[in-house]
Fold each of these.
Amino acid sequence: MSYQGKFRVWRGDDSGGALEDFTVEVNEGEVVLDIIHRLQATQAPDLAVRWNCKAGKCGSCSAEINGRPRLLCMTRMSVFDESETITVTPMRTFPIIRDLVTDVSFNYTKAREVPSFAPPKDLAPGEYRMQQVDVERSQEFRKCIECFLCQNTCHVVRDHEENKEVFSGPRFLMRVAELEMHPLDTADRVDQAQDDHGLGYCNITKCCSEVCPEHIHITDNALIPMKERVADRKYDPIVWLGNKLFRRS
Amino acid sequence: MARAEIAARTLRTDRWWLPPLTTFVGLLLISIYAAFRTFQGDYYWVDQYHYLTPMYSPCLTEECVPAASHFGQWFPALPGFLTPPVIIIPFLLGFRITCYYYRKAYYRAAWASPPACAVAEPHSKYTGETRFPLIAQNLHRYFFYAASILLLINIYDAVLAFGTGVGLGNIILLVNVALLGAYTLSCHSCRHIAGGRLKHFSKHPVRYWMWTQISKLNNRHMLLAWASLIFVCLTDLYVALVASGTISDLRFIN
Ligand code: SF4
Ligand code: SF4
Ligand code: FES
Ligand code: FES
């Protein structure tokens, strides 16, 4: 059961580029990454694509297929019509290196800006017994494969390059939430989230959750709970008044 | 380094514009209906069966039908075109407008920010909820408190209506408060207040249990938002039709 599929692949680098048409053989059971590999093997040996595991676990093969941010290795060809032209483009939000490969260092910069886990100074190793219910929330966030599809899709930076400075993106706001929800973390994550990582820029339109290949409920379980914590701290007049009246810090 | 040069606003080939359009039309129709009923100022109370539409509850001004004012008439008759619900509507509207789900819905559908995922928004600048007026969305929890009180009043009304027997209207009022209750309980602020704000779930087993139950409802928050909104309108319509004598209530007991 194979057929000749029609593809349009973006080729180029930071000096320019365009969509190029190809006709490539498609076999039963294949994913888009298989087709890209066949294209490389048969017609475009210099086509650049980043991949590693082909199992949806390394987060390397992020791209956009028919305009939707997805993993190349987890998008089955069977979801498309045989007559359909399938467009494959690099992630839009990050600077292009070549063809389907982008420079995702924005994400590493943002990752470094999140202060690391801060357990109590006087806690000896082995002294604390972690309960399952206390780590459950962070465990969901730990499923992240760092594909950066959420970062790529979030309109705050996708449509506004200038916001990259102030906004860390859903992946790293989720990291802040993970630490904030950790029973042993002592750092002040709430002010950081709003002031240093730009949580206020998120308008909870949920595109990060929509594209996450790990189906992490980024918005519902990380971003909104952080917004609620920020509201506790900064925008709750009753809490504010209590602090004024009773001189709590 | 520059981004890949792709001119198209989106390369999506599916009907990405359909969900925002449906949301927009849905919210528009409901707003028109609600505005019409608010300013109609009539047919909100069925004296015979003690049905009070949730849109007029509590009825707190002196122009209210006295029997419909279960909690007294605190305010004088309102001038001009103003009707009793204008006192409670700011709270009800505020609750829905600052709701995390509705925010998503109208940011996408009415403001196209973004219209759909991976479809460029038409605005050249974007500051999200960082400044006035959108920073006020952070007051959602206060609307949640207010809406909870109004919900209790709606429950009281629904129970009170059973005093005259049981009709289809009673069932409708009951389903209405059930849906409103589920929507209100599934609120993200409610989830946070009940237990979400804790770091140590293991030290607070009761609040952890509440949080897990609310989280289950919270998963369906969008569904409950629509179901409760539509059903409030249907409830109101039913009361209006019975109150105006257009239809008669289907009675089961007396
Ligand atoms: S929910 Fe917030 S972080 Fe996620 S894509 Fe939307 S704006 Fe970005
Ligand atoms: S949160 Fe999901 S979409 Fe974002 S980087 Fe992790 S796995 Fe990818
Ligand atoms: S190649 Fe590893 S996620 Fe696709
Ligand atoms: S989040 Fe929707 S009602 Fe609170």
Note: The mean pLDDT of chain A is 95.
Amino acid sequence: MDMNLKLKIWRQTNNKSEGHFEMYDVVANEHMSFLEMLDVLNEDLVNQRKQPVAFEHDCREGICGTCSLTINGQPHGPNAGTTACQLHMRFFKDGETITIEPFRAGAFPVVKDLVVDRSALDRVVQAGGFISVNAGQAQDGNAIPIEKERASQSFESAACIGCGACVAACPNGSAMLFTSAKVRHLGLLPQGEVEEEQRVQNMVAQMDKEGFGMCSNIGACEAECPKEIQLYNIAYMNRAYFKAVFSGEE
Amino acid sequence: MNWFIKFLSSSIGRKLIMSLTGLFLILFLTVHLIGNLQLFKDDGGQAFNVYAHFMTSNPLIKFIAYGNYFFILLHAFMGIYIASYNRKAKGQQPAVTNPNVRITWASKNMPILGGLILAFLLMHMGDFWLKMKLGNVNMVSYAGIEGEVKNLYERVAISFKELWVVIVYLVGLVALAFHLNHGFQSAFQTLGINHRKYTPLIKKLGLLYSLIVPIGFALMPIYYYFFR
Ligand code: HEM
Ligand code: SF4
Ligand code: FES
């Protein structure tokens, strides 16, 4: 079924200029994904020799964390556990007006239109979101035995795709959910555990340096996270941080 | 000590200060409420005055009381600092408010609720504590008790006959109820205490606490205004 939609989209030339909303009409189809609907709009705009709307996308299958739209006030839109690229138009009504904004957070400056610079998250990962190994031949998968339960718990946190929706959802612009997911993912595994003390301190320090806010335990992040990363990740990180600061080996 | 200052100025360190001072205040409020239940005794204020005398003269309790004032101020200033830092960290607000149900009114308005509590506390301390310290309170003596004690009970009874005082108390206590409604469980999460075994219990206790304690305090001015 075809759908006639009104789009209220944030347009901004670059991070120095003031942005504003513009209205567009688009005819979409209920089977399209949200990004395909924007592709249709952009095709129309190009045909009219107008600037297409800049938005980020890559995998379009919910695994890369590149898409970053605030749709009607919600990062990644209305569906729980879904990225914007995996959101289908059937969840909207014919004739609806949809407001599309970039992810809003002080640490995510707008680059253009709906594109924001999320490299602050990369720097948080660079500060410690890794394990130090000599990368040689790929290791035998089961060289280090890990119980199934433990592997699954770690994997829950590893599901974070680093999209930054948690930061955009947070009224404080905090990146605690993202950072804690990395800390728990690595800390629960034997390969990552050895470096946990350094990791958690370095990552928290970088997170603070980037100007992310301080978590008020509101839980907006957990509700908007497309990978359903839970608040207990933050509790895990706080515990690891206290332990590292007060009883870490020097 | 360098490491400790570095820790306290980190985001998690600051939140730890909020959590520990908040939990201390929760403990204090519990003791304060239980002690003040003596205001409901129909004995002309003897039990309450004797209790108040003990609380203001025992050196250990005096020490804890000054700690309490310090913690309130630390909690308030740190709370205001965090709130203003977070406003900047958020930057531009989205044009459409997030309809996310997890953003409760209380959790989003902790600094405003805290500000109301602080305003209330200033008025409350001015009315009782300051007047007591400045000696604007009559003395009484009771059989079987050595010397005179301050008649704080009389001061309470006079204050709670004023409608505006009762209203200020009720507003302050409603703010406290909302503040604790979010704050109680939040303090545990900040400490890293979150587990599916007991977090549901903590949340239930928090809800109960945030209702029982403010209602308990609210009954005092209401009782004195209407029934004394
Ligand atoms: C007796 C009175 C008070 C009690 C029992 C209390 C208790 C609490 C508790 C338990 C928390 C949660 C801490 C955490 O999340 O780790 C909290 C947070 C907070 N309190 Fe209070 N508080 C009181 C008074 C105040 C006052 C006077 C202010 C002054 C402005 C204030 C401002 C705040 C703020 C802004 C937060 C949120 C901090 C954050 O999570 O980012 N509170 N309070
Ligand atoms: S925690 Fe969730 S919302 Fe935050 S970056 Fe990871 S996947 Fe995105
Ligand atoms: S484009 Fe890769 S997650 Fe949406």
Note: The longest strand of chain A covers residues 2-11.
